[in-house]
Specification:
Strands 2-3-7-6-5-8 form a six-stranded antiparallel barrel. The longest helix is centred in the middle third of the chain and has 25 residues. Helix 2 packs across helix 3. It is elongated, with a radius of gyration of 19 Å. By secondary structure, it is of the alpha+beta class. It contains three helices and 15 strands. The chain binds zinc ion.
Length: 211
């Protein structure tokens, strides 16, 4: 595997890296700041030597970057990575908002989210069954209180399962997670409800954050 620098410092916006492998528009670097898209995360974009990357893909030998077009480079060359920071920061704030909000639903109301995802400027949680309006309102109020209070957000590797990560917000239960977060809830901004729908009996709660 290459070095996944985004797990060591999620605030790093630029990096120099060496090329391990090249396949047309695809590059495998010795280290990277670009996280691939997942079910939850939109994935990073940015530039390598000024050329846009359209995405990244996790494979057996590491995380590959896919360029918009082929560039003339050789194995061993050093390249400069520049992250689209605004997009990353929004994704981290929304991701942290989802993990935080899942906390009061679970701890205060015994309602555990079964899925969550970021979609553009919004993000949503999904619950197994309908959740009462009153609970939704109170959970969001608690989350916004937690944002004001400033709870630490910690992501860490599982000690027994290789490659498996957890994220914990304050004292809420830790949640399995491969994504990236801000370090403190006070970086999230205020959580506001965008919509609440029932999708085939499952409660879906869409939110956004405003700084
Ligand atoms: Zn997550």
């Amino acid at each position: 595997m290459n070095e996944l620098v985004y797990y060591q410092d999620q605030y790093l916006k630029e990096l120099e890296a060496g090329i391990l492998k090249i396949e047309e528009k695809r590059l495998l670097l010795d280290k990277t700041i670009f996280i691939p898209a997942s079910n939850t995360e939109p994935g990073d974009v940015g530039k390598i030597n000024g050329v846009k990357i359209v995405g990244s893909k996790k494979e057996e030998d590491g995380v590959w970057q896919i360029l918009e077009r082929q560039i003339l480079l050789n194995t061993g060359d050093t390249v400069k990575l520049e992250l689209d920071w605004n997009k990353r920061l929004l994704a981290m704030r929304l991701h942290s908002a989802l993990h935080l909000l899942a906390g009061p639903f679970d701890k205060n109301f015994n309602q555990r989210a079964v899925a969550g995802a970021i979609r553009g400027k919004n993000a949503h949680l999904v619950f197994k069954e309908k959740v009462a309006d009153e609970i939704i309102t109170q959970a969001i109020e608690q989350a916004n209180q937690d944002i004001e209070n400033g709870l630490a957000i910690k992501s860490y590797w599982d000690e027994k399962r290789a490659g498996f990560r957890w994220t914990q917000v304050g004292n809420y239960p830790a949640i399995p997670d491969g994504g990236l977060h801000v370090r403190n809830t006070n970086e999230i901004g205020k959580i506001t409800l965008v919509s609440k729908d029932l999708d085939q009996g499952h409660q879906k709660i869409e939110i956004t954050t405003t700084s």
